[in-house]
Specification:
Two copies of one chain form a homodimer. The first copy, chain A, has three helices and 13 strands; from the N terminus they run βββββββββαβααβββ. With about 240 residues, chain A is mainly beta.
Chain lengths: ~240, ~240
Amino acid sequence: MTYTFEPIAVVESPYKEKFGIPRQPGLVEAALGYIKLLPPYDIPDCLDGLQTSSHIWLQFVFHQSLDTQWRPKVRPPRLGGNKSMGVFATRSPVRPNPIGLSVVKFEGIDLSNGVRIAISGMDLLDGTPILDIKPYVPYVDSIVTASNEFAAQEPRLLPVLLSAAVESQCEVYSQSSAIDLKALLVQVLQQDPRPAYQRAKIDPKRDYGMKLLDFDVKWRYAEQQSDSGAHSLYIEVFALIEL
Amino acid sequence: MTYTFEPIAVVESPYKEKFGIPRQPGLVEAALGYIKLLPPYDIPDCLDGLQTSSHIWLQFVFHQSLDTQWRPKVRPPRLGGNKSMGVFATRSPVRPNPIGLSVVKFEGIDLSNGVRIAISGMDLLDGTPILDIKPYVPYVDSIVTASNEFAAQEPRLLPVLLSAAVESQCEVYSQSSAIDLKALLVQVLQQDPRPAYQRAKIDPKRDYGMKLLDFDVKWRYAEQQSDSGAHSLYIEVFALIEL
């Protein structure tokens, strides 16, 4: 027995590649985007009343994991990549049915270019196929007594500094686009996109990059010394290259 | 473009028919059941570490709604059935892709009969196909600031009385099965399973019934008068017929 589903919508996201996407929704509020309904589902009636929800659930396909064979055990990045857990005890995109689940903030309905839901706080790749949209129902979905030992709190954030050139590029971009590019850069990079196995040692000469909006963002890792002599890691964004 | 998925598990639930199932999970804590992994996914390794989660998400197929054609607008029972909303603004089982989402309490892993996850608080029909199981991650999934105007709080509960015969049947059953049948009956029926259009008027002669565990449960609605003269509705369970 199998079930076949057709996407009802597609994601329009600032995240143009997997690397650098926050590992959970809600961590990057400045990530604004849209869910664009696809025909024959692109009827404003389908969304009538969604304005009464502050947040919505998205059930989507991990479309860039479709060709990866699932395994019973995975190594979640949160655990440093050196401890394995059962696939159903994780949110790994590589799973028997690669269906994702993500809650995002509802920002409004936009009819200027098809039928779209404006959202923020997303953790989804541009072009992600959406299978279903549901309202977040707080008294059911928000379980304040719930616990999860392995993901008890938000990951630690790193300070993010922008070079003077990047700062002014952000200003120019935000004036013409109404997107707060600086906030987006800081919120994305402070999550520290490096894979766990690269975190043991800092290579100050290594350049990192990710595609975000219309830019290739370039950054490095460096250490600063505080008055007390302690070293602390930070990120410096040194280039924004237009694609 | 379509996506085809195979169930990874199936639900073992006390709810043997759609009528009477609570409209959301968590409302009936006494609803105990199992998620039984199907081959080739029935490997204990797949669940390793799930014990660290107090709750789990189930993504499932509304398999009894597969033959019903979706419509852009639906009439949610919560709104009395006389107000319509867009399908994506509701949790209706009749939707373009009939994929459900439900959070349940994790009660343990049971290897006595295949590989099963013991759960409670479920709102799922027996035999429901499960597409995915994920841990509930409180800091991501529990949004304490979220709001939903149309489903702001739990539905009002009705008092449930059991006849003396039903009381003693419950006692006998609970002694042999370790299932608290009385609690289950009360928690299920206090949700008031009647469709909204039948709620306007009470018919004290009308018998209602639902299949629960191995029983056909029979009940009626009645009114009692308080000392102050106010009438209030209650439910009386008058028969438990073994199936």
